[in-house]
Amino acid sequence: MTQRNGFMLNLIDLHTHSRASDGSDTPARIVQYACEKGLKGIALTDHDTVSGLPEFMEETKKCGIIGVPGVEISTRLFAKELHIVGLFINPETPELSELLERMRAGREKRNREIIHKLNVLGYEITYDELLQVAGGESVGRPHIGAVLLRKGYFKTMHEVFVQCLKRGCRAYVPRELPDSAEAVKVIHAAGGLAIWAHPVSGQAGERGYAKKMLRKLMDFGIDGVETNYSMFSEHQTQMMHEIAEAAGVLKSGGSDYHGVNQPGIDLGTGSGSLAVPFEFLERMMEARQCAR
Question: Quick check: 230 and 288 in contact, CB under 8 A?
Fold first, then answer.
């Protein structure tokens, strides 16, 4: 990692979350922290909302750091949940606003169903309590977990998910998700680049899986893939670089920073070894210029 006196030289972070979704920091605080750490560029990519972007972009101007407006959208491909990050988006684009409103409505429906299941199981939790904890407009399972923790039902967020909220558990409710093709189309309509986020997670045959999914995403017009990610091993990082280069798509990367809501993952450095070069951002900006 390129560092000097604690500063990260020519490094960026293109995957972060604020209080507008399930992070703990305000959008402005993320920018300030990025500047303190010496990052050269930062993106805000909250789940299913762009409400934090005005504050975020305003703070990047004050701090003199390159700010990238973004969003993270959960989608479905081949019956798998797949996340797509939109970078350089225009948050006021009607197509994007419509999709995100639909996503948040689906979240509300799901959250109410989860709370009902939890009530049946004996956990006293209300929807109003959930909204008070969330703060932002994109509300999800981590916020439900936070309410349960505050009430003393569990000691850690891990326990909440393992016992109640994870897929297959007693209070789990699946999400209704848009097709990946729709998300890519909407991101492009918003003037953005569509990036496949955290493509592998240690599943068997992950190289074949990544190549298969990327080929299909390229049919939809995907622009790039995260090759550098907090949870990747050195082998996975190298593998994703090879796959991206062979496919001729852009490389991206980020920490998936959530502040104190995801212990052990820090801005810019992830779990300690993450280093996303500024070169990635330069190539993205070049690609956008060529597309105009």
Answer: no
Per-residue pLDDT of the chain (292 residues; tens, 9 = 90+): 455 444 556 899 999 999 999 999 999 999 999 999 999 999 999 999 999 999 999 999 999 999 999 999 999 999 899 999 999 999 999 999 999 999 999 999 999 999 999 999 999 999 999 999 888 888 999 999 999 999 999 999 999 999 999 999 999 999 999 999 999 999 999 999 999 999 998 777 999 999 999 999 999 999 999 999 999 999 999 999 999 999 999 999 999 999 998 889 999 999 999 999 999 999 999 998 887 6
With a CB cutoff of 8 Å and minimum separation 6, the contacts of 145 are 154, 157, 160, 161, 165
Neighbours of 243 (CB within 10 A): 18
* DSSP strands (E only) in 107-249: 193-196, 224-229
At residue 249, φ and ψ (nearest 5 deg) are -105, 165
The residues near 250 (Cβ < 8 Å, ≥ 6 apart) are 193, 195, 223, 224, 225, 244, 280, 283, 284, 287
Nearby residues of 240 by Cβ (< 8 Å), 6 or more positions away: 199, 200, 210, 225, 226, 227, 228, 232
Pairing of strands 80-87, 66-77: antiparallel
Burial class (CB in 10 A: 0-12, 13-18, 19+), 227: buried
Domain 3-99+177-291: give its CATH architecture: Alpha-Beta Barrel (3.20)
140 alpha-carbon distance from chain centroid = 13
Count CA within 13 A, CB hemisphere, residue 112: 5
Contacts of 234 (CB under 8 A, 6+ apart): 273
- Residue 46, sorted as left (phi over 0), alpha (psi -120 to 50) or beta, turns out to be beta
The Cα 21–Cα 58 span in angstroms is 19
All structural domains of the chain with their residue ranges: 3-99+177-291
